[in-house]
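Subject: Sodium-dependent transporter structure
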Amino acid sequence: MSQQTREQWGSRTGFLMAAIGSAIGLGNIWRFPAEAYKNGGGAFLLPYLVALLTAGLPLLILEYSVGRKYRKSPPVAFRQISKPASVIGWWQVAICFVIASYYAVIVAWSLRYAGFSFGKDWGKDPETFFSADFLHAGSEPGLPTSWVGGVFWPLLAVWLVVLLILALGVRRGIERSNQVFIPLLVVFFVVLVIRAVTLDGAAEGLDALFSPDWGALTDGSVWVAAYGQIFFSLSIGFGIMVTYASYLGRRSDLTGSALVAGFANSSFEILAGIGVFATLGFMAQANGVAVGEVVTDGVGLAFIAFPAVISQMPMGGLFGFLFFASLAIAGITSLVSIVQVIISAVQDRTGMRRLPAVWGVGGLVAVVSLLLFPTDAGLALLDSADHFINQYGIALAALVFLVVMGWVLRRLPAFQAHADETSAIRLGLWWRVCLGVVTPLVLGWMMVDSLRAEFDENYGGYPTSFLAWAGWGIAAGALVIGVLIALVPWRTAPRAEREEVR
């Protein structure tokens, strides 16, 4: 296998912008506010902070350490730790393939809705417009039977932009694009929040979000929700941060970088909560109902509730454009990081150069995305795949990773020493306890709790036959593919396996 000089970030700021761009995604805007509201309001910030300090940041530092130490994508980095561990890396690559294929579709929806905002094209019934007029969603979930041109063409544009950014490389493509997109995203969202808090009813919305219910802190599910939010919002557990850290210089400050990226991500989540609930407060007052009656999250918040608000508010067209443009920007920066994991893994495994890898492998992800999701079955398939690949892909892969590193191979002390070599803030026993005990226990409980819910009731009310292939099948398929790729013999050992890695 040919060896190539590893690309590097141009600066620490460039790396941080990319890491923050990956972490700040759709979940920050449409998941955190609803999670906080449902789990104690202002009181939720306490378990959220605890989760950040005991799970999010420690795991982020570990992934930075693995990536920088071995300077490879997850499959090759894990193989250098222990050959069987490469299964975890390829599992994460397969997870990224699935997520990238549907994540791009939501970015495409956001772009279309940014345009729809000026004319308020959804009319008086945003829900019917979204599912029937825009997506042409079928009445029953199943296999695609027709394509939707209104989604296909913006989705194609999204993929062309993402692949072009990746084709330009780590420094000229990913780093420079994030240096433009992240400041732009912050400006857009700050303007949006300022407008939101000046709306009638905004105070009631913010009061609903931040009024603390301290009694909720005695409920274990609230703490599980906090850990789940931190986990799914930091881009940890599926190879992104290992990959990004593999392009760092040898003397980079890992702990300090993790703190900056982690707290920047959380700050944006709180900002998003303010903007979303100020807007929902306006909607509740305009309709004469309580704030709790209009609270929703995910696709329903972005493409149904917010269009209804935009139709009622002064300067709604501009507000809508800023909101959906922010969604699109946040989505693109995250999507770039997800696809980069796949490309980097293929490059490291085969010695393929960047351009063939981007247009070949990245192009394959784009083709799968374009075949499956801009169809009448796209909405149900996206919803099911997202739920199962998150719950039984990302979270489960991270649990296995921590158990293997902490309990089986006992490599946490070595990675702590590696991070401490160049970090201003040194790690202590707390870091190993968090990764070896606290985070695995919480992730394990999340698995048990989630499985209990699955067996009590089918997710989303979907038929069992549909969930068998569009949910469980996708999650299990990612693991099976990871195992099969890991079993393929290497023609030559990677150079890093033949030389001692300092």
